[in-house]
Write a structure and sequence with these properties.
The chain is of the alpha+beta class. The protein folds into two domains: 35 residues; 65 residues. Helix content is 37%, strand content 28%. A hairpin with a 5-residue loop joins strand 2 and strand 3. It is extended, with a radius of gyration of 18 Å.
């Protein structure tokens, strides 16, 4: 059986080839991205009260950028406790507003 790192490396290379193909062909790009949703997680910085608590926001979106689902996660690693809370539209709106101008680029500094 192959090592998990080798399998991951092969899969990553395959994904990179596919994305490069999509970058060269609008038809391939449209076909690929019509199937692709995405998610991202925002990790909040530690608070003054506790640096042992970890909390984050996870958002899942469609290829068109429409939010499908969102949840807030809270973890106390030392106590081995974890919970997540689904976010209502009302609770999610301030986060979406804050991240509304976000754009992903490579840092070339």
């Amino acid at each position: 059986m192959s090592d998990i790192n080798e399998l991951a490396e092969k899969r990553l290379k395959s994904r990179i080839r596919k994305i490069k193909k999509c970058n060269k062909s609008e038809e391939e790009k449209e076909k690929f991205f019509s199937q692709l949703g995405t998610s991202f997680e925002v990790f909040f910085p530690p608070t003054k009260k506790s640096d042992t608590v970890s909390d984050s926001l996870m958002i899942w979106v469609t290829p068109e950028g429409k939010v499908l689902d969102a949840e807030y996660s809270y973890e106390e690693p030392e106590e081995e406790q974890y919970t997540s809370i689904p976010l209502t539209e009302k609770d999610l709106k301030p986060f979406l507003e804050a991240f509304g101008d976000m754009k992903f680029e490579l840092d070339d500094s």
